């Protein structure tokens, strides 16, 4: 039985409910009246249910699909403005005891070169990340209780936060490690992490068990309930995601929205972010076996529907995607992207050893090129990490976001952190275009007090001071 509040995975990610939702979508894919009414509801900016989203996803009326895309774009502008948050992944160890068949970290993969960073190596990696301008990272690690126990993760987090190279500092560490116990989530919270990120990979239980044949990750129930345990452990910003290409995309998107509804209903707050990774080639992985790959067109439709269904949830796209796919994704809903990423263990400090990589990246531009590109497209690259440092997490963040007041913080914070980037790391051309942008955008801040305070902070940044925030 489907039960949104249940504490059993198969009741809130209910196979029958997912299939019924997809069926309703398919039956009504040309139902202009019904789809129009859902688009109208979506335009109120209060989100959509998984059933409504399944209908938009299935829609095959061209003019309505155009409206879905333009509505997503409009919601994105209304809520996020032109700001795009930048981050980079930091891989600390690729030792792994799981058997995930799509992932090069899987235990039986002899082609992957195993590597675990020491604390000294983590210091070097962190300094290298700081030297290109990053302030926010996603810590990535394989699952291995012997090589990568929670103590190793916690020590790595402390080490990363402790490094201060020149004006650099990593101010927010989001953590993407395997499902763990409530007790360990409590420890991660105490270590001051930002968002806890865990991809479901696939919500389809049968496929899930086939794709994760061995190791602790095989347990669908334990994996699917991870966010519940994380929230019970005190982490109130969690990031969901599915690895598109493993199962049918309609199934994944419907179930992902059911997961979001479950967290809202059972824990009082939905996901802080959603990631939409697509499967990529990797060392020792035969990609031919994954037959559910999605086209760019469907990828973008998924993002548009997500933007309408979860207006206040950040959407993340990584360097798995090409420059062109990222450009389109940014237009219709994405609010965070990685830049200058290395998916190898220890790839920032030293030349990359592709044999330790997690997957092949497509957008290989440097962070400065990505920053310059964002400015040229009219966006404000943001290195802001203020929300969780100011206690604006979970429910508090959502309330502020829904009231529209969050932009009074985000907009000036984006400009202040961009100015820091321009002072410390930018190439001349980026600095020139960035300063013009900051001047224009400061003038667009309506509230006089906020505008004046932001101007004063930016002046202080130019004089060498750092880390101001609203
Ligand atoms: N060990 C953690 C876990 O079990 O969730 C972290 C996983 S890994 C460092 C981060 C993510 O990379 C995975 O959750 C998976 O979705 C993704 N991934 C694995 N193999 C991939 C591939 N071949 N192409 C693209 N993404 C992949």
Task: Summarize the topology.
Elements (H helix, E strand, L loop, with lengths): L8 H4 L2 H13 L4 H11 L7 H9 L3 H19 L2 E11 L25 H14 L3 E6 L8 H13 L9 E5 L5 H9 L5 E2 L7 H7 L8 H5 L1 H7 L5 E4 L7 H19 L5 E3 L20 H14 L4 E4 L5 H10 L3 E3 L28 H10 L3 E3 L3 H4 L4 H10 L3 H18 L3 H16 L4 H15 L8
Helix pairs in contact: 2-4, 2-12, 3-5, 4-12, 4-13, 5-13, 6-7, 13-14, 15-19, 18-19, 18-20
The chain binds S-adenosylmethionine.
Can you walk me through this structure?
Strands 1, 2, 3, 4, 5, 6, 7, 8 and 9 form a nine-stranded parallel β-sheet that branches. The chain is of the alpha/beta class. The N and C termini lie far apart (46 Å). The model has no long low-confidence stretch (mean pLDDT 96). Helix content is 48%, strand content 9%. The chain has 20 helices and nine strands. The radius of gyration is 21 Å and the shape is globular. α5 packs across α13. It binds S-adenosylmethionine. S-adenosylmethionine is lined by residues 102-103, 140, 142-143, 176-178, 198-199, 201, 217, 243, 277, 279-280, 282, 285, 320, 358-359.
Question: Which key features would you list for this structure?
Answer:
470 residues
Helix vs. strand class: alpha/beta
Mean pLDDT value? 96
What ligand species are in this complex?
Answer: S-adenosylmethionine
Rounded to an integer in angstroms, the radius of gyration calculated over CA atoms is 21 Å
Percent helix, as a range, is 40-55%
Outline:
With 470 residues, the protein is α/β, with parallel strands linked by helices. The chain is built from 20 helices and nine strands.
